[in-house]
Amino acid sequence: MPTYTEQSWLQTPLGEYLLEQEQSLFDGTVSDLFGFNAVQVGLPEVDFLRNCRIPFRLRAAAQGNVMLRCDAVQFPFATSSADLMLLPHVLEFSPNPHDTLREAERVLVPEGHLVISGFNPISLWGARRLFNKDESFPWQGRYVSLQRIKDWLALLGFEVVAGRMGCYAPPLRKQSWLQRCRFMDGAGDRWWPMLGGVYFLVAKKRVMGVRMIRPNWNGARVTRVLIPKPTQKSEYQKSEYGN
C-alpha cells in the first residue's frame, strides 16, 4: 500500500475529487465576504482565497512552500487583525483543535468570519479511517465530529451562519469507481444529509456590546425639578414698578 504525503495525496483521484468539491464551496463563500486581511492556514498547495475580494491575502502552514510558516496552535498574528480566516482540514491534524479555534477567535476582528472544512467521522470516509491501518494522509488524522466543532464555536462566541456537507461518494482509489459513485453527491443532501465525507462551516465572531442603561425618569417629576415655580413679587417690587 503506498504511503502518501499531503501534497502527493491531493494529486490522486480521491484527492482531486475532494479538492473539486471543496474549491467550489470556498469559492462561493469567500467571494461574498469583505474586509482588509484574509488568512488561510493549512493546505497551502491550494489557493482557497482565489475568489476573495479582500485586498491582503496570506497563506500559512506548518510546512511546505508558503508565505509564512506557523504552528497549528500558536498563530503569529496580532489580536483582532484578520477579517477572514480559513482552516481547511487543520483541526483533525492539530495536536489541540480547541486551542486552534481559540487562536482563530483571538486573531479575528469582531464580526469577522471563520471558514472550516473537515473530515466527517460519521461517514464512509470515517469508517475507512477506523478500519484502515494506513498511516499516511489523510487517514492518520483525528477526525472531530461536526457537533463537537459547533459546541466549541459556541463556547468561543461564534455563531454558525452557514454549513454544508460534501463528498458523499465512498473513498475509492480508482477514478473509474469514483465516477460510478458520483450520483451519490446529487442525492446525498436529500437522502443522507449528515453522512457526507467532509463538512463545511462558516461562523461569525460575535462580541457582546455595551448596553446603555437609561434612568427611569418621571416626566412630571422632571418638570417640577427643572422648572422653578413662579414666586410672588415683594411689596418693594410692586411699589417700584407701580404694580
Q: Topology of this structure?
A:
Layout: H1 6-9, H2 13-30, E1 37-41, E2 56-61, E3 68-69, E4 82-88, H3 97-107, E5 108-119, H4 124-131, H5 146-155, E6 158-166, H6 175-180, H7 183-191, E7 198-205, H8 219-226, H9 235-241
Parallel strand pairs: 1-2, 1-4, 2-3, 4-5
Antiparallel strand pairs: 5-7, 6-7
How does this model look, in words?
By secondary structure, the chain is of the alpha/beta class. The protein has one domain (6-205): Rossmann fold. The chain is built from 9 helices and 7 strands, in the order H-H-E-E-E-E-H-E-H-H-E-H-H-E-H-H. It has helices at 6-9, 13-30, 97-107, 124-131, 146-155, 175-180, 183-191, 219-226, 235-241; strands at 37-41, 56-61, 68-69, 82-88, 108-119, 158-166, 198-205. The model has no long low-confidence stretch (mean pLDDT 86).
Concise structural overview:
The protein is 33% helix and 20% strand. It contains 9 helices and 7 strands. It has helices at 6-9, 13-30, 97-107, 124-131, 146-155, 175-180, 183-191, 219-226, 235-241, and strands at 37-41, 56-61, 68-69, 82-88, 108-119, 158-166, 198-205.
Task: Supply database-style keywords.
243 residues, Rossmann fold, 33% helix
- CATH-defined topology: Rossmann fold
Report on the biggest sheet.
Answer: 7 strands, mixed
Q: Architecture in CATH?
A: 3-Layer(aba) Sandwich
Q: What is the radius of gyration computed over CA atoms, rounded to a whole number of angstroms?
A: 29 Å
The counted number of beta strands is: 7
CATH class: Alpha Beta
The succession of helices and strands, N to C, reads HHEEEEHEHHEHHEHH
The CATH homologous superfamily? Vaccinia Virus protein VP39
Helix and strand content put the structural class at alpha/beta
Poorly predicted runs are none
Estimate what percentage of residues fall within beta strands: 15-25%
Distance between the termini: 116 Å
The main sheet orders its strands as 3-2-1-4-5-7-6
Helix amount: 25-40%
Number of helices: 9
- The coarse overall form would be globular
Taken together, the total number of domains comes to: 1
Q: What do the pLDDT scores average to?
A: 86
